[in-house]
Design goal:
alpha/beta
Amino acid sequence: MNDSWLIVGLGNPGPDYSATRHNVGQMVLDELSRRIGAGFRSHKARAQVAEGRLGVGPGGVPGPKVILAKPSTFMNVSGGPVAALAKFFSKDPAQLIVVHDELDIPFDQIKLKTGGGDGGHNGLKDITNALGTKDYLRVRVGIGRPPGRMDAATYVLKPFSGTERTELPMLLVDAADAVELLVSDGLVAAQQKFHGRTAG
């Protein structure tokens, strides 16, 4: 088991974007920061960072150290901050978890994987280019496809619907739980628990 992890939540900066679907990764990191009892502070790598220990390990010992990071740049240039943070904290891709919104998964579902394509997600594309590898872990938080003929780029920058907002808190808790299980028990265990289930 890795003794420490860099966990990055993707989104766009500023209050205009904070409640949009594209920022669900950063919402999950807010939940994780509450769990570790640490607030975010500015970091020179163009990110907000919080550090602490996540969960409780065997025998009641504190869980592994985590560095939670929210890039301060716009989504499509997330790679620079992520690569700089990985270098600063000496984390290789196997110790990097990226939490992000995923159009190809229905709202309120969570999937996890390592490597693979970016599915048209510009944040992932930029991270892959900056790191020079696709082999990092992803926690994919489902936001579903846009209704009708709405453009995907428009859809991800809109706030969640009223019905979705009712269910969003449980989705964020589940996604944070998925990160915790990924850190403590590994990818296969987290996949087995969270694939095919809905929030709650």
